[in-house]
Structures are given as C-alpha cells and as structure tokens.
Amino acid sequence: MRGSGVSRVPFLKMNGLGNQIVVADMRGSKARVTPDAAIAINAQPQTKFDQIMAIHDARTPGTDYYIEIINSDGSRAQACGNGMRCVVQALGAEEGRRRFTFETLAGILFGEEAADGQITVDMGTPKFAWYDIPLNEEFADTRQVELQIGPIDAPVLHSPSVASMGNPHATFWVKDDVWSYALDRFGPLLENHPLFPERANISIANVLAPDRIILRTWERGAGLTEACGTAACAALVNGARTRRTARKATVTVPGGDLVVEWLDNDHVTLTGPAEFEWRGDLDPATGAWTRSEAA
Ligand SMILES: N[C@@H](CCC[C@H](N)C(=O)O)C(=O)O
C-alpha cells in the first residue's frame, strides 16, 4: 500500500462495524487530503464514507505513523476508534505484525490485532472538565449538563453527560428504544448547539444492564453512522461515572457489538472488527479516484 510520492496515493475502502472508512496511504507524500477532495470523494455513492484515515510518516520518535482523520464534510477530527481499527488491520496485513503505535491529534494511541481478528485500540484517557470537552459555558459537573431538545416543559432529549475522548461527545440517556428518537432531525441541531464551540458527536444511549448499552450516534461532520467507536467509549465512561454501568460493557451500535473497557490506569480500550472491501488510488487534492482491478 506504500505511497510512491506521486500525486495519486493508494487507498483501501474498509469499514469498522459499518462505519465507512477510507484508509489513504500518504506515506512518502508531502500532500494532504484537502476538504474539497474529501467532499468530492463522499459525493460518489461507491466511495461514500464517514472518515478518511490518512496514514502519514511518523512525526514523533517512538511512534510508527501519524494518522490524520478527515470527516466526510471535510473537517478534521481528533479521534476515530473504528477508523483506527481499520488502520491496524491494513498495516498489519502489509507489514506482517500485529501491534502499532500511532500519533493523532488526540495523542499517542496503540492498536493491536488478536489472533481471532478482533482489534483493540487504546483510545487514551477521557476528559470531563467543561473546558476540555469543550463547552461554551462553565459546568462544575459534566455528568449532567443543562441541554434539552423538544418542548420546554416536555423535552424529548435532555440532561446529557458530556465527555472528551479526544473529540467532543454528548450522551443522552433514555429508558426506551433508541430507535424511537428522530436522531436524523435532532442530531444536526444538537451537533451545532451553541453549548459546543467545536460542535459535538451526539449519542442516544439505553443501558439494558451494567454491562450492556444500546447506542445510536449522530457524528459531528458525518451524520448518522452505523457505528462510532469514540461515542461507544464516551457512553461507557459516562455510564460508569453516573453509576449506570460497570467499567466494562458491550456497546451495541447499529452495525454490531463493540467491547469498551475503562481500565484502572484511566485508559479506555475499544475492541471490535475491521473489514477490507476494495482498493484503488486517489488524488488527495481533487478527490478523483480509480478502483484497482485486483481485489
Ligand atoms: N467514527 C468515529 C468518530 C469520528 C470523528 C467524529 N465524527 C468527530 O468529528 O469527532 C469513531 O469511530 O470514533
């Protein structure tokens, strides 16, 4: 997959539990995927994606690669759990090893593929201070913040727990079916709510048992997705600190099951699968792409 320094770079179309991922190999290239290219790639049905994971040469000693994360609206994201699993699988297949250390905007992360194909990514430590998420208003306790949607006296969704997993998340707790909420309608309003100066990923969570959460997410910069790994991590840490869940749970998202654990060292791990679909090459400046003949 290694890039050759010419203007087109190889890419893999992959998914992490249905989270649509393009892994672009920018190694050896000085180029970056432009916002216009991302929007153009996403505009075509075959390459509609949630995130591009751009693999760059390492910038920091002790890390294998620098990973840049680009949402389908062209914006940059600090973290992407499902995309990191795709990167681990892609590089593992190429390099014949199982463990990698990456640098992202969220910090240094580790990823490892087990013999059964399940991939675990250490997503770092969560942050809960209002200015770290960030929020536009000071809250001493971010386990429950004042935010609601729907009629003032009968809100449809209200009082989310908020957290940063490197990127901003709001977890709205519900006691009934997460599918009964019009997340496609409320998601964009909440993502862009003035409380979130950098916008936010918006999730609806139903805790079925201390070790089982059902979750749907409206992703910042990407919209409704089949899976959002960092949202699953945020739901688990928010669940544990509000005593709704244990520190380890299966988080069921539309695309399937993720296992999230909040370790004693404060790091959060995310475990799940990744799937290769097909490969091609693309121009990171314009988004023009070609599918390779060979699978
Ligand atoms: N799909 C992701 C999250 C991607 C980034 C997010 N949309 C943001 O802008 O913060 C995941 O699996 O974590």
TrEMBL record:
Belongs to the diaminopimelate epimerase family. It comes from Devosia rhizoryzae. The lineage of its organism: Bacteria, Pseudomonadati, Pseudomonadota, Alphaproteobacteria, Hyphomicrobiales. GO terms for molecular function: diaminopimelate epimerase activity. The active site is at C80 (proton donor), C80, C228 (proton acceptor). It catalyses: (2S,6S)-2,6-diaminopimelate = meso-2,6-diaminopimelate. This is Diaminopimelate epimerase. Its EC number is 5.1.1.7. It is found in: Cytoplasm. The record marks H169, E219 as: Could be important to modulate the pK values of the two catalytic cysteine residues. Its main location: cytoplasm. The keyword Chloroplast does not apply. Substrate binds at N19, Q51, N71, G81, N82, N167, N201, E219, R220, G229, T230. PROSITE patterns: DAP_EPIMERASE. Pathway: Amino-acid biosynthesis; L-lysine biosynthesis via DAP pathway; DL-2,6-diaminopimelate from LL-2,6-diaminopimelate: step 1/1.
